[in-house]
Design brief:
The structure is a single chain. The longest helix has 22 residues. A seven-stranded mixed β-sheet has the order 5-4-3-6-14-15-16, with no helix packed on it. The relative contact order is 0.17. The chain is built from eleven helices and 16 strands. Helix 3 packs across helix 4 and helix 9 runs antiparallel to helix 10. The chain has two domains: 92 residues, Urease, subunit C, domain 1, CATH 2.30.40; 260 residues, TIM Barrel (Alpha-Beta Barrel), CATH 3.20.20.140.
Length: 358
């Protein structure tokens, strides 16, 4: 048997090995876009080894080469392909340079994708040319309409040093309106007051979270608020910030970025759902984010979870089990004991198709 694709039969795939997170032996078949343990006649054994249910980049903005540029479909395709080569089977784009084409998330050689449409920001904040800037009173309705279309909305509640933070009553109403339509709300915050407002409002995921008061972490865990720290891009800019002339912005960034690794490790320790996201170009850098998490003190198991099974569960997809979507990335050895394995996946399977291999 097999799947029908563009008039030809695509052979069913088979993988076997040790499935994370538990490391139990499995023998899985993908006949179409679902895993099964029932043998499929003629299935092609494409890889054996250590199996992850596909990597996830939970904070990426493909499709534009520079802030403020419009969405470019050719750039979008190339960015999505770069994710797959890195082992990413699922992305979440909490903000795009424009509404994506219908094939976004269904590209033959690209990952699955969920998105929040264009960013929603306050007047005078965020990158020129990107996002929408409704009146504050209209933010809840705009966010709800977006979430009704795509499942997610993204609100930028603070920006530069000295900017106003979005009022908590506005954000709380946005959360309520988004949840009422069955959606979820992501919030950008990199300032202490913004983090406090975000947690108080009860959003679904806090993006970046730089300068967040660590005392809020238990409440985030209790309320199920995820943190996507985008650690590698924030700490990667730290040395450049330290060499800049003294200014309020430098003081803010150096202090926040310098504490961001310990904050992230503390979030994991507190039971917060931590998601791995890159927020940078070139795309396909999720392994660097996993390494940044480990360098900050997160265990390799939890760091890989943030970029795989934990992130997939948060986004509504199960792992390597019968009936689950047929995504996987296969390595020769356990990546938890050898992070170098993450640089060289043996096979990347998305929607039951082998999209990359060596």
């Amino acid at each position: 048997m097999g799947d029908i694709e563009r008039g030809r039969v695509v052979p069913a795939l088979r993988i076997r090995g040790f499935a994370l997170p538990d490391g139990e032996p499995v023998d899985l078949y993908a006949d179409g876009d679902r895993w099964t343990t029932d043998p499929v006649a003629g299935a092609d054994l494409v890889a054996e080894g250590w199996l992850l249910p596909g990597l996830v980049d939970a904070h990426t903005h493909p499709g534009a080469e520079e802030p403020g540029q419009p969405l470019d479909h050719d750039v979008l395709r190339a960015d999505l392909r770069a994710h797959v080569v890195a082992g990413v089977a699922l992305i979440r784009a909490p903000g795009l340079a424009g509404d994506p084409p219908d094939w976004f998330g269904y590209l033959d050689d690209g990952p699955r994708a969920v998105h929040a449409g264009p960013w929603i920001a306050q007047h005078g904040q965020f990158f020129d040319g990107w996002g929408r800037r409704p009146a504050l009173a209209d933010v809840p309705a705009v966010a709800a309409a977006q979430a009704a279309r795509t499942g997610w909305a993204k609100v930028v509640i603070d920006w530069s040093v000295g900017d106003d933070v979005m009022p908590v009553d506005v954000l709380r109403e946005a959360v309520a309106r988004v949840h009422a339509v069955g959606g979820r709300l992501a919030v950008h915050s990199q300032h202490p007051d913004g983090g406090a407002v975000a947690v108080e409002a009860g959003l679904d995921s806090l993006e970046h979270g730089m300068c967040l008061d660590p005392q809020l972490l238990p409440r985030m865990a209790e309320r199920g608020i995820a943190l996507t720290p985008t650690l590698s891009v924030i700490t990667g800019s730290l040395e450049r910030a330290r060499s800049a002339p003294d200014s309020p912005r430098k003081q803010w960034y150096v202090a926040g970025a310098g504490a961001h690794g310990p904050l992230t490790a503390a979030a994991v320790e507190a039971g917060v759902t931590v998601l791995a996201g890159t927020d940078s170009r070139p795309h396909g850098g999720i392994v660097g984010e996993i390494r940044a998490l480990v360098a900050a003190g997160v265990s390799p198991h939890e760091a890989i979870a943030a970029a795989s099974w934990t992130a997939r569960s948060f986004l509504g997809l199960p792992g390597l089990a019968p009936g689950a979507p047929a995504d996987a990335v296969v390595y020769d050895a356990d990546p938890r004991t050898d992070l170098g394995q993450l640089d060289k996946p043996r096979a990347v399977i998305v929607r039951g198709k082998r999209l990359h291999h060596r």
